[in-house]
């Protein structure tokens, strides 16, 4: 077997295992973190706060209408693991996910890097 090809296969295997770790951790969040497992699109701000508690921060979005709340789920590799909840102008959940509010609230017209 070619040494370069074997190295490539080894690197691919390591990357696959690391990706699996992230997926596993996030699957665990679906069971243990109320903001991840129970907050759904269309819920009100009050319902989110009742389920998930007070967010770590809340900002007015620049490129989308509404506000964005950040929840800190814990630490991963020395960095805070964040989860955002975006609320429309009426205060209802329109989206959520494993990003910061800044990563979510990007200009849709900006060229992709």
Automatic annotation (TrEMBL):
Superkingdom: Bacteria
Molecular functions per Gene Ontology: DNA binding
Keyword Heme attributed: no
A Gene Ontology term for the protein's cellular component: outer membrane
First and last residue of the signal peptide: 1-23
Keywords in alphabetical order: DNA-binding, Membrane, Signal
InterPro entries: BamE-like (IPR037873), BamE_dom (IPR007450)
Domain annotation Outer membrane protein assembly factor BamE: ranges: 30-96
Name of the protein: DNA-binding transcriptional activator OsmE
Organism whose genome encodes this protein: Cedecea lapagei
Lineage, uppermost ranks: Bacteria, Pseudomonadati, Pseudomonadota, Gammaproteobacteria, Enterobacterales
């Amino acid at each position: 077997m070619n040494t370069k090809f074997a190295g490539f296969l080894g690197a691919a295997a390591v990357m696959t295992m690391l990706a699996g770790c992230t997926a596993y951790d996030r699957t665990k969040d679906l069971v243990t973190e109320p903001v991840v497992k129970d907050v759904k699109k269309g819920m009100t701000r009050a319902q989110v706060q009742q389920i998930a508690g007070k967010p770590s921060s809340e900002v007015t979005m620049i490129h989308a209408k509404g506000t964005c709340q950040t929840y800190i789920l814990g630490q991963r590799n020395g960095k805070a693991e964040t989860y955002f909840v975006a609320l429309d102008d009426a205060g209802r959940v329109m989206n959520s996910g494993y990003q910061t509010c800044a990563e979510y609230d990007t200009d849709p017209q900006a060229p992709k890097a």
